């Protein structure tokens, strides 16, 4: 059973106040990948009432068919699919699109969440969840700058950054090592690394880093930056560098300290 505020699984109604919300959300296209028809239908109606364009798919084949004719701005992806691994679908979407990804699952263990985030998800919602919370998370993820426009206007001409053995391309959410192997980044990892590249050797505390990558987003635990830094460090360690590129500063701060950044 999917427990959400004001709604039971057998209900066909939406929370009070949502029926009148029909303004389009800047033509934002959301994909729902969910095998339960009742849950899928409920989420679709809810998001449509919020003004989003919504499509649904049951599996990878359905996602690939949709991608041939439509771009996807955000995907709500259930991990527990009967015939396929939701993590594999997450990886497929990250490799083939610029869509934001929110994983939705009854798996609430921290390791399951980390696995989804490591594969490219931008957020993770555990069932049961509140529909209004889901709507807020969708808005928050969509507010984060698109990879093409993460950089401020003054830095818009920068297409890539080189440091140590890495080439970082924000527009592709990717790192390339000296062997040419591509390391995919999530949207949050891209935002963090871009902020660090633009401010190399500058010490930031957690709150300052969160402000750089999340703007004025509210109710975000400053400790979330620790998990994000940890994930990015693991990816930057693939080239075998002995010293950490992102150093921890006593007192709760971080500094990006490459040999050079250009």
TrEMBL record:
Residues 29-142 form the Response regulatory domain. The modification 4-aspartylphosphate is found at residue 78. CDD domains: REC_OmpR, trans_reg_C. Residues 158-258 bind DNA. Residues 158-258 form the OmpR/PhoB-type domain. The keyword Plastid does not apply. Pfam families: Response_reg, Trans_reg_C. Keywords: DNA-binding, Phosphoprotein, Transcription, Transcription regulation, Two-component regulatory system. This is DNA-binding response regulator.
């Amino acid at each position: 059973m999917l427990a959400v505020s004001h709604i039971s699984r057998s209900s066909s109604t939406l929370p009070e106040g949502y029926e009148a919300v029909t303004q389009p959300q800047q033509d934002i296209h959301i994909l729902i990948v969910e095998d339960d028809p009742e849950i899928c239908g409920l989420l679709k109606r809810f998001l449509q009432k919020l003004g989003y364009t919504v499509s649904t798919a049951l599996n990878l084949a359905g996602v690939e068919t949709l991608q041939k004719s439509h771009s996807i701005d955000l995907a709500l992806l259930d991990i527990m699919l009967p015939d396929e691994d939701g993590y594999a679908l997450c990886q497929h979407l990250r490799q083939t699109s610029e869509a934001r990804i929110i994983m939705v699952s009854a798996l609430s263990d921290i390791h399951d969440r980390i696995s989804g985030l490591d594969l490219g998800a931008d957020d993770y919602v555990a069932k049961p969840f509140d529909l209004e919370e889901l709507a807020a998370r969708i808005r928050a993820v969509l507010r984060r700058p698109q990879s093409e426009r993460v950089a401020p206007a003054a830095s818009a001409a920068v297409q890539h950054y080189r440091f140590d053995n890495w080439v970082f391309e924000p527009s592709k959410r990717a790192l390339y090592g000296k062997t040419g192997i591509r390391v995919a980044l999530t949207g949050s990892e891209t935002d963090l690394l871009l902020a660090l590249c633009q401010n190399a050797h500058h010490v930031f505390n957690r709150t300052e880093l969160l402000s750089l990558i999340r703007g004025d987003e509210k109710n975000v635990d400053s400790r979330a930056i620790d998990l994000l830094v940890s994930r990015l460090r693991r990816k930057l360690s693939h080239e075998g560098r002995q010293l950490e590129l992102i150093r921890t500063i006593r007192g709760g701060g971080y500094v990006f300290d490459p040999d050079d950044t250009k």
